[in-house]
């Protein structure tokens, strides 16, 4: 119980959550992320404008949008842009400082674009999520951009596999009350999910 095995090594099962390399994240809870992504696209309607955050679960959503030419995708994720570089949605890339670990553009420079936009739905990822500490990530620049996106979204859908539920990382970028829905997998702790439901958040497990 002193260490937890993950793809490529081991991590401490206790304490603050760290962020693995992007390509390592895709191998963690891979099947659960695919199910979460499949449930997420039900929230997208024709002619919607959506924001796709960074993260491996969000990238799984992008892969399912390649045939949807009637929507607009705003993103700060280089991986999402690469996934949608062929036929599919109109894509707007948010600029900023490139963060290699998450493959995203972050920080105050991203506000130059985001301050001018409003999206129908923002699909967000997170490193940690708890009813008491809210939505947390590892990097203040990443948190800044995530919070800015959420302030410009009509609805906020959080995609988080069960390994992130009840966990806390370094910096908060939102509170649970900000969310309209949480999509997670069936391994998420029921007591924590019930706390989210009591706050009026729609919780979908798949």
Overall SS class = alpha/beta
The SSE string, one letter per element, is EEHHEHEHEEEHEEEHEEEHE
Mean pLDDT, nearest integer?
Answer: 91
Radius of gyration based on Cα positions: 16 Å
Fraction in beta strands? 25-35%
Number of strands: 14
Q: How would you briefly describe this protein structure?
A:
The chain is α/β, with parallel strands linked by helices. The protein is 26% helix and 27% strand.
List keywords for this structure.
globular, 206 residues, single chain, three-stranded antiparallel sheet, alpha/beta, 7 helices, seven-stranded parallel sheet, 26% helix
Q: Mind explaining what this structure looks like?
A:
The chain is of the alpha/beta class. Helices cover 26% and strands 27% of the residues. The strands form 4 sheets. Strands 5-4-3-8-11-13-14 form a 7-stranded parallel beta sheet, sandwiched between helices. The chain has a 3-stranded antiparallel beta sheet with strand order 9-10-12. The chain has a two-stranded antiparallel sheet with strand order 1-2. A hairpin with a 3-residue loop joins β9 and β10. The longest helix has 12 residues.
Secondary structure: elements and pairs:
Elements: E1 4-6, E2 9-11, H1 22-25, H2 30-40, E3 49-52, H3 56-63, E4 72-75, H4 78-83, E5 90-93, E6 97-99, E7 104-106, H5 111-114, E8 119-124, E9 128-130, E10 134-137, H6 140-151, E11 153-159, E12 171-174, E13 181-184, H7 190-198, E14 202-205
Parallel strand pairs: 3-4, 3-8, 4-5, 8-11, 11-13, 13-14
Antiparallel strand pairs: 1-2, 6-7, 9-10, 10-12
């Amino acid at each position: 119980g002193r260490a937890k095995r993950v793809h490529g090594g081991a991590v401490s099962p206790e304490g603050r959550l760290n962020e693995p390399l992007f390509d390592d994240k895709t191998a963690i809870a891979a099947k659960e992320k695919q199910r979460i992504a499949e449930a997420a696209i039900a929230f997208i309607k024709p002619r919607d404008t959506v924001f796709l955050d960074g993260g491996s679960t969000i990238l799984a959503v992008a892969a399912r949008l390649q045939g949807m030419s009637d929507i607009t995708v705003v993103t700060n994720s280089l991986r999402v842009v690469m996934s949608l570089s062929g036929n599919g949605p109109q894509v707007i890339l948010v600029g900023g400082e490139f963060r290699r670990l998450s493959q995203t553009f972050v920080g105050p420079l991203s506000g130059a674009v985001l301050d001018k936009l409003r999206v129908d739905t923002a699909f967000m990822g997170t490193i940690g999520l708890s009813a008491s500490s809210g939505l947390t990530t590892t990097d203040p620049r990443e948190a800044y951009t995530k919070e800015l996106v959420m302030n410009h979204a009509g609805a906020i859908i959080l995609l988080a596999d069960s390994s992130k539920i009840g966990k806390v990382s370094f910096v908060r970028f939102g509170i649970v009350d900000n969310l309209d829905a949480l999509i997670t997998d069936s391994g998420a702790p029921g007591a924590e999910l019930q706390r989210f439901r009591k706050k009026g958040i729609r919780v979908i497990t798949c």
